Amino acid sequence: MTNEHQRLVSVESQSEYNLTSGKSETRIFVKMYVDAVKKGLIADIGADRWQTLCVLSSFMNEKGECYPTQDQIAKALNVRREAANKRIKALCDYRWQGRPLVVKQKTRDPKTQRWENTRYTIMPISQLAIFDGDTEELPEPRDE
Fold first, then answer.
1. Cβ within 8 Å of residue 68, ≥6 positions away
2. Whose C-alpha in 22, 33, 107, 143 is 20 to 30 A from the C-alpha of 4?
3. pLDDT tens digits along 35-94
4. What angle do CA 96, 10, 22 make, to 5 degrees?
């Protein structure tokens, strides 16, 4: 990630080593920057979609890909599975400055044609990245 632009949100990892037990622990954090508010992302996305985006980001890899189950998402949001599905749909339908923050792709098993898994990709426009993943610069908000 370049530091040429201001980030709105980031995901970082922190490793700790316990001298007493000899064990290492890695923690992952989602950070929101004040510019996410100043540039209008938080106001525009709304509470439910923001919460859902934060939950999805907790599952992502360095490419922004996430493979949580519907049950995992529902449990993390503390809602029923049906409500979680509605939130995921709303988030995937949402556009920030005309572009999706999350893209959903379902894959089928080629032999059985049953749904295999769902991949959610958190796009760089979302300002969420992990392990040196990319984000992109956002333009200044438009006065309407």
1. 55, 56, 59, 76, 120
2. 143
3. 778 888 889 999 999 999 989 988 888 788 889 999 999 999 999 999 999 999 999 999
4. 155
Sign of CA dihedral 97, 30, 48, 65: positive
Residues 86-101: b if buried by 16+ CB within 10 A, e if exposed:
ebbeebbebebeeebb
103 and 120 Cβ atoms separated by less than 8 Å:
yes
Q: How far apart are the C-alpha atoms of 1 and 79, rounded to whole Å? A: 34
Fold of the domain spanning 40-126: Arc Repressor Mutant, subunit A (1.10.10)
Number of neighbouring beta carbons within 10 Å of residue 23: 9
Element (H, E) at 51: helix 47-57
Q: Looking at residues 116-128, what average pLDDT do you find?
A: 77
Q: CA-CA distance, 62 to 52, in Å (whole number)? A: 19
CB contact at 8 A, 124 and 56: no
Measured CA to CA, the distance from residue 107 to residue 95 in angstroms comes to 23
Q: How far apart are CA 41 and CA 126, in angstroms?
A: 9
